[in-house]
Amino acid sequence: RLGKKLPPTILMGEPSPAPIARAHDQWRFQLLLRAKTARTVTDYLLPVLAGLTTPSDVVVTVDVDPINLM
């Protein structure tokens, strides 16, 4: 769903297990979106996330400007 209408100015990597793949009995994955500015990504993500429905045991967290991916 995230990549359906992805603008050409945003590059999306493949989902991959987080460096610490399992923590607190939960599996963790990460997805990297890249663009020249954080604003480009947030303008795209806000409406997508607003319409997102997930199971009750799924938590979605967004880090717009990560210091590192660890």
- Overall geometry comes to globular
SS elements, strand count: 4
Number of helices: 1
Q: Determine the mean pLDDT.
A: 87
Strand order of the largest sheet: 1-4
Structural class: alpha+beta
Question: Could you spell the SSE succession in H and E letters?
Answer: EEEEH
Radius of gyration: 13 Å
In terms of per-residue confidence, which ranges show pLDDT below 50 for 5 or more consecutive residues? none
**Helical amount among residues, as a percent range?**
10-25%
Please tell me about this protein's structure:
By secondary structure, the protein is of the alpha+beta class. The protein contains 1 helix and 4 strands. Strands 1-4 form a two-stranded antiparallel sheet. The protein has a two-stranded antiparallel ribbon with strand order 2-3. The longest helix is centred in the middle third of the chain and has 13 residues, at 38-50.
Characteristics:
single chain; two-stranded antiparallel ribbon; 1 helix; 70 residues
Q: TL;DR of this structure?
A:
With 70 residues, this protein is an alpha+beta fold.
What is the element layout, followed by pairings?
Blueprint: E1 11-12, E2 16-23, E3 26-30, E4 33-34, H1 38-50
Antiparallel strand pairs: 1-4, 2-3
